[in-house]
């Protein structure tokens, strides 16, 4: 028996057989790409243009002689809107807040008093600072969502929407009415609310609440649906009207973010009539006529209104397109050149959740979904989803010598098959361990098709014989669950890139030696992508530090300064269009952004 050890690579030996030779020995190689490494990159472009994401506050302001609506969003902007059509006014401002304090100033018994709600409801004489009415205990560590003052039966009354403190957690957040002069409870509006406002309609005071939709199984009933807005008569505590508000776009047990609970509400006056403005997690503003309980105007979001969980770049009728999928099941098609939305695919199966895309040259995007099992779909020329590939098991779909193929698991081994004919390609690969094909990669090494298995070591298999060519030990790459290993052709060899905390380790499959790592991130690596800028091999990595970095793989040096992608990113991909290399990212901020990395 002959045991061969070449530059740290340990091939497998078997009794009675000579251990296989390594594809080729270490040799000097100097790559001189024609494309220069760029010094930096421009600003990102946003698909669909600029708009609010997840509205965090709404209000009315006087600007000159006009009343305008204002809103803030999770995107960090404050925007103004002309009334009544809700058309944009001016340019968005970075930053800005719409603050509503849980206090107000009114006249009580002929004195100006300040009313403050926290753990206690206090009435303080503005002139002297002394207590002007009995203190009402609301609860220890009480959270006050909102408070409004009004006159009920000729007496100054506070309507407080709070959580009741530790004594009422968990529990519904009702609206309680308090007679301020006596400190006694004047009534309660039963429900679960996120805020309370007041308006005057036809001369009488009306209270408005945003409903959280909590089920009351103990009473055999339910509160008003989540996201709706109720109008209440404070004297009778009865609901007199209901606005659809900003409800979530999917059933309450399926939405993915608590922000859908946070519908924001403001009340104002427009040409002498009471109006309300609402906005929330569906990224839309709505203006309501409170007298008729009808909608006057609304903005229409351009892009997704929930987390983007997948996208792929494809081609349709000679046009580059991007198909994106949201956690709520929405699918959108975008023009890759203009970045404008082409269509929204509404006719999806009801079970289509968290769609994942596979991009194979010459094919329409394949969409993978999990419901009762693994299912595959294809977009037909009309944009409808058609089921395909019935019975195909778990495993990546990839392009193999220009043809789509599937690397699946059969009898505990990896097996590559032609996707169209289902005929096997090569031999079974004895990959073992949990989910054996999830960290397997089909690649080329020394003009030979191989499969590599990246775990605590890298094992290299001949695709056609199933024979193990070698093992690189002590890889140990505890990366982020999304940071799957990647391969690249650089330095006249095949490189394997694998995450290890905030760095990316690199191995030369020709020799088995580890090359200088990619260092510079300060957070755990979350994605690794490889590609080309012109003919220069590159890698792009993202990290939990909120940045993306591009790397020159000919010498493992950084290219340009880091790109700020934020901590709320989700997925990144590299693609090419008209000779340019594009970095595209999307995620929890519901937007798709693209950087031009250069090329030609």
From TrEMBL:
WD repeats lie at residues 277-298, 301-344. It comes from the Bacteria. Keywords: Repeat, WD repeat. SMART domains: WD40. The keyword Repeat applies. InterPro entries: Quino_amine_DH_bsu, WD40/YVTN_repeat-like_dom_sf, WD40_PAC1, WD40_repeat_CS, WD40_repeat_dom_sf, WD40_rpt. PANTHER family: WD REPEAT DOMAIN 5B, WD40 REPEAT PROTEIN. This is Uncharacterized protein. It comes from Acrocarpospora pleiomorpha.
């Amino acid at each position: 028996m002959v045991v061969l050890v070449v530059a740290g690579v340990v091939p497998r030996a078997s009794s009675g057989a000579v251990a296989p030779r390594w594809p080729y020995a270490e040799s000097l190689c100097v790559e001189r790409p024609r494309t220069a490494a760029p010094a930096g990159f421009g600003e990102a472009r946003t698909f669909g243009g600029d708009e609010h994401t997840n509205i965090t506050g709404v209000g009315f302001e006087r600007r000159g002689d006009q009343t305008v609506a204002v809103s803030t969003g999770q995107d960090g902007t404050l925007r103004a809107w002309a009334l009544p059509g809700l058309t944009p006014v001016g340019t968005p401002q970075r930053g800005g807040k719409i603050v509503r304090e849980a206090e107000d100033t009114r006249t009580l018994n002929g004195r100006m008093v300040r009313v403050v709600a926290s753990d206690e409801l206090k009435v303080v004489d503005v002139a002297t600072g002394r207590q002007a009415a009995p203190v009402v205990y609301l609860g220890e560590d009480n959270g006050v969502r909102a408070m409004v003052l009004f006159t009920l039966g000729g007496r100054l009354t506070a309507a407080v929407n709070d959580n009741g403190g530790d004594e009422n957690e968990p529990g519904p957040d009702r609206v309680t009415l308090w007679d301020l002069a006596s400190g006694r409870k004047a009534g309660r509006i039963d429900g679960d609310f996120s805020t309370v406002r007041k308006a005057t309609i036809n001369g009488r005071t009306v209270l408005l609440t945003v409903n959280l939709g909590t089920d009351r199984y103990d009473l055999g009933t339910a509160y008003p649906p989540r996201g709706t807005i109720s109008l209440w008569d404070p004297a009778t505590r009865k609901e007199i009207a209901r606005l659809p508000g900003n409800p979530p776009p999917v059933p309450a047990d399926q939405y993915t973010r608590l922000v859908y609970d946070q519908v924001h509400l403001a009340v104002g006056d427009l040409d002498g009539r009471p109006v309300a403005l609402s906005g929330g997690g569906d990224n839309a503003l709505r203006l309501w006529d409170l007298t008729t309980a009808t909608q006057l105007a609304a903005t229409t979001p351009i892009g997704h209104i929930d987390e983007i969980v997948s996208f792929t770049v494809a081609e349709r009728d000679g046009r580059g397109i991007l198909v994106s999928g949201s956690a709520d099941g929405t699918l959108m098609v975008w023009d890759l050149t203009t970045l404008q939305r082409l269509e929204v695919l509404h006719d999806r199966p009801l079970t289509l959740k968290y769609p994942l895309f596979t991009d194979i040259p010459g094919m329409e995007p394949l969409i993978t979904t999990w419901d009762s099992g693994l299912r595959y779909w294809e977009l037909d020329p009309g944009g409808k989803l058609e089921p395909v590939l019935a019975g195909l098991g778990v495993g990546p779909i990839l392009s193999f010598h220009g043809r789509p193929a599937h690397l699946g698991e059969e009898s505990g081994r990896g097996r590559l098959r032609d996707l169209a004919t289902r005929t096997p390609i090569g031999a079974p690969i004895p990959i073992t361990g949990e989910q054996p094909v999830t960290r397997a990669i089909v690649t080329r090494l020394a003009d030979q098709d191989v499969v590599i298995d990246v775990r605590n070591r890298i094992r290299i298999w001949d695709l056609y014989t199933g024979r193990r060519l070698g093992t690189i030990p002590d890889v140990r790459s505890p990366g982020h669950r999304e940071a799957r290993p990647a391969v690249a052709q650089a330095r006249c060899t095949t490189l394997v890139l694998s995450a290890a905390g905030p760095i990316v380790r690199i191995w030369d499959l020709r020799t088995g030696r580890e090359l200088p790592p990619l260092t510079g991130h300060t957070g755990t690596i979350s994605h690794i992508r490889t590609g080309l800028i012109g003919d220069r091999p590159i890698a792009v990595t993202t990290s939990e530090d909120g940045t993306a970095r591009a790397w020159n793989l000919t010498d493992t040096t950084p290219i340009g300064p880091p790109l700020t992608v934020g901590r709320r990113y989700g997925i990144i991909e590299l693609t090419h269009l008209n000779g340019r290399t594009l970095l595209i990212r999307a995620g929890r901020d519901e937007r798709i952004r693209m950087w031009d990395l250069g090329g030609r």
